[in-house]
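To the structural biology subgroup,

Please find below the input and predicted structure for Ligase-associated DNA damage response exonuclease, which we are adding to the shared reference set this quarter. The sequence is reproduced verbatim from the submission form. If anyone notices a discrepancy with their own records, reply to this email rather than editing the shared folder directly, so we keep one authoritative version.
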Amino acid sequence: MGLHPETWLKVTEIGLYCEPGNFYIDPSGPVDRAVITHGHSDHARAGHRTVLSTAETAAIMAVRYGNDFAGTTQISTYGVPVQIAEVRVTLLPAGHILGSAQVLLEYDGSRVVISGDYKRRPDRTCIAFDPVPCDVFITEATFGLPVFRHPPDHLEISRLLQSRELFPDRCHLIGVYALGKCQRVMTLLRSAGYDRPIYLHGALLALTKLYAARGIELGPFSVLAGLTAEQLKGEIVLCPPSALADRWSRRLPEPVSAAASGWMRVRARARQKGAELPLVISDHADWDELLQTVEDVNAPEVWITHGREDGLLHALAKSGRRARALSLIGREEEEEDS
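Predicted structure (tokenized):
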């Protein structure tokens, strides 16, 4: 390894800055050149002069911000290097949501992988995480405590379907984030054999249509417009988490309120969301998967960007790896997309 990455990869007020390439990774404000890992708004902001991302992330940003979200958009294919000044940049699958990417930086003999948000479980809506050996691994730690061990996804969906059978005269209203979680819950339901239409709050429609247009099999879905409470008995309805207790939900037939998130492991969070049926379905790696990923990439040094750093720092120190916490701001969407 040549120059240590901490000499050329800097934490700034607006995000992680690669000095020899003169670009930022997921900056929190407009910059001349940004490399974007995925489309969640705490990582993908509008107003950059130039954006490098996957085609799917660019499409998501266009839906969210309009086609002029950046001055210039450069599309990168997974595994194909792009030279930016002195740095070779390669986007790799992260398994978080459609189009999500890790960022591999190669400079002066060093290999640094910035994970972005990621998970390790199978997901029909995106390409699986690809562990790549590196000298420094920069990882998220949203669920970086031993208490966060997510149950198998299919068991959580089974609980939902069992509840539907138990309460056939009620609808099930599930709070899901509009990008990623909504479409993942839909595919999990389809994998479990649920073939009825899935009804959506209008705020979920545009991104769900984008997923369908990109070839993700979601089955029949539609918005609620024109449907009566009687017609919605026994049906599954998806909405943003903020709509669970909104006036909008009063039209539904005695809804069983549910929420799909890794945070549903914490009872206080479930009560806060008003979730009668908390579903532990996460788009982030849990504790065991974080540790496994560090083993898989075999990085002697790990930097932690956000989340529960202390537990992971302690575990990595015991394993003989160097570890440090980075203080990156602007991750307010983590609560919703987890």
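Summary notes: The chain has a mean pLDDT of 93. The domain at 153-279 is CATH 3.40.50 (Rossmann fold).

Regards,
Lab coordination
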